[in-house]
Amino acid sequence: MQKFEFFEHTADIGIRAYGRNLNEAFENAAVAVFEVMTDTSKVEPKEMREVKIDGYDLENLLYRWIESLLVYYDSEIMLFSKFYVNIDEKNLTLEGKAWGEKFDPNKHERRTVVKAMTYHEMKIENKGNYYILTFVVDI
What we know:
five-stranded antiparallel sheet; 8 strands
């Protein structure tokens, strides 16, 4: 199963992330967002950051997960390439970890900066044996 794909969207970037379960789909969504910004295969998992959030529904958890990671990028210039997510669907909480390193222009390709997560076209689909997360990021 592919981890993610991009789709055309006027002035922004659409992402479809896939996973065998909801946690994996959220992890792959994060990889996709950082792949927009750089080649994540060149981002070493040297430092770890934690994210603990709650939401009012799964879409809000997805929004807040990506938003939290972008805050680390904006405040520390952190790029991430490895993620761990544990979602409690009953209580709508997410505990996640992201591993990466600070942006180094000599090592990391500078692609398009993701400015923000959006709710535009957001959809979380449970297909029985896999999940599809669809969303758009502002660039």
